[in-house]
Amino acid sequence: MPETVLNAPVVPAKLLLPLFFLLVATLPGCGWFFGSDTVLTGYGPESGRMRTIDGQLTRRQVLNAASPYIGSRYRLGGNTPDGIDCSGFTRAVFLRFGHELPRRSRDQAKHGMQIALRDVQPGDLLFFDTHRSGTINHVAIYLGNRELIHASKNHGVIVDNLSSYYYRRFVMAKRVLVSSNTALR
Prior knowledge:
Elements: H1 13-26, H2 31-34, H3 59-66, E1 79-80, E2 83-84, H4 86-95, H5 105-108, E3 113-115, E4 125-128, E5 138-144, E6 147-152, E7 156-161, H6 164-169, E8 170-175
Antiparallel strand pairs: 1-2, 3-8, 4-5, 4-8, 5-6, 6-7
Helix pairs in contact: 1-3
């Protein structure tokens, strides 16, 4: 039997994953993945930035803004899809909404309004002390349903759940974005 050789181009997974998430997010009837109550606003034509709906982010909006980074590898101090750390990731996502966060997670924790963990909503920042040293050293974005998206040292940018590991290391939650034109500081 003759050997079959495919000459198809190889596309890196880090390019395919964001496309997959955007495709699934925009297909009708795919509410099972993102929640059927979410609406995608896309970019505001006048600003080129993501806009919020009624002042509150949705899971879909957060994932859409994060999509260029999903699957990116972790790199300390990184801030591009080729390599990014946790605070670089949250900073890049919030820039898509027109809000500039500081570069370090402990500095990001100084912005916004502190809220109880039971009150977090999609788009809120979650801060952790993963070393248990008394200092904030990790940040993630809450997605809803006890899920978060962050740049993990071991797995890169992933959707994760608020497992007992993160729950035990949780320090505080902050709401930074209030509406498309207003950001708490």
